[in-house]
Amino acid sequence: MAVTRCSGYTAEFDRVTREEWSSLLRLFDDATIIQTWDFPESVCPGQQVSRLVLRRGEEVVALAQARIVATPLIARGIAYVAWGPLWRRQGRAPSLEIFDAALAALQNEFVERRKLLLRISPNIVGSEFPEARRMLAERGFSKARQAGDYRTIMIDISVPLPEVRGNLERTRRQHLANAERTALEVRQGTALDYYEKFKTVYRAHLSRKGLLTDVDIGRWEKLQETLPEIEKPQILVACDRGEAVGAFVVSCLGGTSFPIAVAATEAGLKANASPLLYWRALEWLKGEGCRTYDMGGIDPEGNPGGYQFKKGFGGKDVTFIGTFEECRNALSRGVVSLSEPMYTLAKRLARVRKSRLFSRGEGG
Known about the structure:
Low-confidence stretches: 349-364
CATH class of the largest domain: Alpha Beta
Radius of gyration: 21 Å
Number of strands: 15
CATH superfamily of the largest domain: Gcn5-related N-acetyltransferase (GNAT)
Oligomer: single chain
Mean pLDDT: 90
Order of helices and strands: EEHHEEEHEHEEHHEHHEEEHHEHEEH
């Protein structure tokens, strides 16, 4: 546990309890499920975790949760802050000074004191805060070459719902209206029986498309089970005469939704289950106080069909500032440079094995 003071800020590492962290998380507009206490243990087991609480006087102004992978004995490796630091308090004007102070605190702890490679992926849309890139560069961060930028469609849901619906492309409005006239029933909740329905639809979705994925839905199921009720993602299931034909899992902790997965069976595809689920999720998110609806990432070249579907909801095409890293220790740099290609190779081999099982009907 460490406490450091600099330029009017106090940085506290690993002094907060689970309950305190959960309460603090809900104060931030840029919070996501990635920064919840239970996420690392459930979705990324085997990694160490370190948490920053940054104060200005008595007020908490920033948070960050770092996942650490380091070699035994010499303790060299990487500290990764995903979708952080959190620095935008709800109901207050964003201050990039706080973002910069959080960067300084993370550098002091992980780069200087622990001598690790520090990698961060801020939850920042590039067009909203272009100065953030300059601040990162001035602090010595460089763009991580192996990480692509997150690009997505963002929908403003702070306006009235009729206006949001009016912004949908004509085809998308027709598909939604057709789905609303069918026998589809949308049920939603956070209990594990909803997650079981999602898993059934998700596996059928992968089989229908002939897709393989590195996503371990079992780990996400564990997260669904362990999170406090107020932090659990909402699971929406579209049913046709009692049979689940579509499912959507979405989280809302801050001002922007965090989409986790959407899937549909062949029957769900024909019944336009996906547009209906997206719309019902949007209605729920707005009711929860969410102001921006993230459609879940786009790749116009690699997945043009998915891009056109999401573009039809009339949102704004945005790109986040990306992933940055800094390291002043040659040993940590070497450990990461050697281990990451090995990890990538292991994933490829696992994918090949899974593909063979899938082709024999043993996968999924």
